[in-house]
Amino acid sequence: MVPTMGALHDGHLSLMRQARTLADHVAVSIFVNPTQFAPTEDLEKYPRPLERDLELCREVGVDFVFNPSVDVMYPADELDVVVDVPALTGVLEGAHRPGHFVGVCRVVAKLLSIVGPNVAVFGRKDYQQLKVIEAMATGLCLPVKIVAGETVREADGLALSSRNVYLSDEQRAAALSLSKALREAEGMISDGVLDPRAIETAMRAQMQAHHVTVDYAAVRGARDLCELDLINTSMMPVVCLVAGRVGATRLIDNVVVGEGTRSPLARG
Ligand code: PAF
């Protein structure tokens, strides 16, 4: 299964193709989940091009699309159910979007229970979400294997996101500073910079130079998002994470360093 909120792009299609290599049948859910949006966020204007999404699912050979209504997922008489992984959800995205991950956990737990997949694929683009869902699935003994899918990027490095459609040409150029900041961070780590703070400062400066309002620029342990005193990728891979607003559009990106694979940000 590949859970999505629709407005599908090549990043989603790559998760679906990956799912196809892991299972005989692939299900996709398309549901813009209201419980993971704050009242100030873009729930109303979130793109919902359903016919196009269904066509793309057909083209990739998806067997089953689950596209429930809000009433089906959240019946009016349902009592609130709270699933949370507090050790992971209070920081970074969670600190800037209070309640977001409780909404994500609730809907993902429901979607997995309804569809019942053996394997569910989530993109690394939402790295913290991936870690939260892995922890939720393990902690609740959910009978599903959580698999990570790589982030897909434009040729110039911009990570694909359903929210990129909001960007003007000028804003798109500014948005590139997120992946540039991550490349710079990777370069600093491979040059032997050990102090996470120095890297965070450089990432923040890169984004601010392009008039991005920075929510965070952080270097954390890749396994559990722990804070680090020093970087030692031979002991523990790290993840560099950035989030910022370009105009009214909020974007996030990340790169994992020290996993022993070629950098996903490397060109060519
Ligand atoms: O990553 C997303 O698209 C959403 O957060 C998810 C996992 C489908 C839950 O609504």
What's the number of helices?
Answer: 9
Q: Give the name of the CATH superfamily of the largest domain.
A: HUPs
DSSP strand (E) fraction? 15-25%
The biggest sheet, with number of strands, parallel, antiparallel or mixed sense and barrel status, is:
3 strands, parallel
Q: Kindly provide the name of the CATH class of the largest domain.
A: Alpha Beta
**CA radius of gyration:** 18 Å
Measured as a percent range, the helix fraction is 25-40%
Which small-molecule ligands are present, each listed once?
pantoate
The domain count comes to 2
Specify the structural class.
alpha/beta
Q: Might you state the CATH topology name of the largest domain?
A: Rossmann fold
Mean pLDDT across every amino acid position = 96
Structure notes:
The protein has 268 residues and is of the alpha/beta class. The protein folds into two domains: 2-149, Rossmann fold; 162-257, Pantoate-beta-alanine ligase, C-terminal domain (Pantoate--beta-alanine Ligase, Chain: A,domain 2), CATH 3.30.1300.10. 38% of the residues lie in helices and 18% in strands. The protein contains nine helices and eight strands. The chain has helices at 10-22, 50-60, 70-73, 86-89, 93-96, 100-115, 127-139, 169-190, 196-209, and strands at 2-4, 27-30, 64-66, 119-123, 145-149, 213-221, 238-246, 249-257. It has a three-stranded parallel β-sheet with strand order 1-2-3, sandwiched between helices. Strands 6-7-8 form a three-stranded antiparallel β-sheet, with helices on one face. Strand 1, helix 1 (10-22) and strand 2 form a beta-alpha-beta unit. Helix 6 (100-115) crosses helix 7 and helix 8 (169-190) runs antiparallel to helix 9 (196-209). The longest helix has 22 residues, at 169-190. The protein is globular, with a radius of gyration of 18 Å. 37% of the residues are buried. The mean pLDDT is 96. Pantoate (PAF) binds next to strand 1 and helix 6.
